[in-house]
Amino acid sequence: MGLKYNRILLKLSGEALLGKQNFGIDSDVVEHISNEIADIKDSGIEIGIVIGGGNIYRGLSAAQQGVDRVTGDQMGMLATVINSLALQNALEMRGIYTRVQSAIKMDEIAEPFIRRRAIRHLEKKRLVIFAAGTGSPYFTTDTAAALRAIEIKADVIIKGTKVDGVYDSDPEKNTDAKMFDKLSYNDVIEQNLRVMDMTAVTLCKENNLPIRVFNMNVKGNLEKLVSGEQIGTIIS
Q1: Do residues 180 and 165 make contact, with C-beta atoms less than 8 angstroms apart?
Q2: Taking the complete model, does pTM exceed 0.85, yes or no?
Q3: What letter does residue 186 receive in the DSSP assignment?
Q4: Strand partners, 215
Q5: Any idea what DSSP says for residue 177?
Q6: pLDDT tens sequence across 66-117
């Protein structure tokens, strides 16, 4: 397969791992995601991943229930580590050498995030999962994805969702919602489109890093996207 990108940062939400469950990790979903990644890994593409923790714990919603925001965000960071380890396990069962790098120290289960080491892993065709967000409260895993993508010099952020792209309204609630093929960073900011949070979009804009939003649940979509097919929405 011909490749459009050499190095990508794949952003997955924690909610993506829920599947049909209300809480936790659906093993069928993890299997599907790892199969999709395995299908493109053989092509030689270099892959970094950032995964959220919303299937286990959300700092922002916890803050609304009286949990201190900083504490809640730290609990959310730990949730992303659990998800990262689950995905690492599934990928390694498929023979893909995978490293988890954490933004907070937990030496027994993950490497610390060291930019040069991460890049070296990628060059050696190991997959790197960046866990624990940015390591700081008040920043989402979207912002972590933008930051890590810039740091490792990724060609693009690819955001896997459960809908086909970016719409002008929620397609699950509005059957007439219109999907965009292309958007500028300013379109996203001015129309307050819920693609990624504004900090992440601004980081991408300032560093000229394109964002691709697509449906991760459709088999073969990821492979088509990295091969250059027009899948989902591109923001640049």
Answers
A1: yes
A2: yes
A3: H
A4: 161
A5: P
A6: 899 999 999 999 999 999 999 999 999 999 999 999 999 999 999 999 999 9
